[in-house]
Amino acid sequence: MPLIALMTDFGTRDYYVAATKGVILSVNPKATLVDISHDIDSQDLYHGAFVLRNVLPYFPAETIFVAVVDPGVGTSRRILAGRYNDRIVLAPDNGLLTLVHRDAQLQALHVVENRRYFASAISATFHGRDIFAPVAAHLSRGISLGDLGAPADRIEVLNIPRPQFNPDGSIDGMVVLVDRFGNMITNISEIDLTAARTPRPHLEVHLGDRLIGPVRHTYGDVAPGEPLALIGSSRMLEIAVNSGHAAQVLSAGRGTPIHLG
User: Fold this and answer.
1) Which of 12, 83, 180, 204 lies deepest, with the highest CB count within 10 Å?
2) Is the pLDDT of residue 120 over 90?
3) 105-114 per-position pLDDT tens digit
4) What's the burial of 23, exposed, middle or buried (CB within 10 Å: 0-12/13-18/19+)?
5) pTM for the full predicted model
6) Where are the beta strands (DSSP E) in 105-248?
7) Are 258 and 189 in contact (CB under 8 A)?
8) Contacts within 8 Å (CB) and 24+ apart, 197-200
9) How many whole angstroms separate alpha carbon 17 and alpha carbon 58?
10) pLDDT single digits (tens) 150-183
11) DSSP string covering 194-216, please?
């Protein structure tokens, strides 16, 4: 029986997550449910896209991901069901799939439109419970993506800036996410550093106008309270403070420019 993995911005203080799980279990009492996170920043599509992209490879093949960060719930925005790397992802067509779509192998993509697999009554403000949950449960019982609707001919993607490679061998990027530890994750990947004309040992990292220093190996390479740059577990360059909250200590955050040169 495939796993159903849930990622939402619902939080845990209200009934939303419990109701979503209850619907899944009503359709398939044998379903195995796993919580990825219900603390995605409210309506933050990039945060959701980042988390989804980074957990997908670590789940078994045939896992069904239910990803609900949906500011446009109840509007004409579509719901998509995609097969990526032998895993199924249900998500609103609002950019939440951007990083999975960019970095994983797409095997099939369909519009979720067959109301046979929806709840009998649908709230205009809670598609997570009334559409995503029953559809995921029916998928776990063996229906195909083709049963849900026609193949999708397009997908909405977020405008996520790429790092810029300069003629002098330097790289310009930006902070795109702050995690719960205060680490500032950038849009510069380990692959980008490998492709840089300037060898990594000679690259100096600047956060805005502040010199951070070379790319380190781990947090303990600097003294407690000191800032550093390193490649994190997501394989992206991040700015951290050893035993501290980098975004607060350095008064920076999403959108702050990064320069390596």
Assistant:
1) 83
2) yes
3) 999 999 999 9
4) buried
5) 0.93
6) 106-111, 164-165, 171-178, 184-189, 205-207, 210-213, 215-216, 227-231, 236-241
7) no
8) 197/165, 197/169, 198/169, 198/170, 198/260, 198/261
9) 23
10) 999 999 999 988 999 999 889 999 999 999 999 9
11) HH-SS-GGG--EEETTEEEESEE
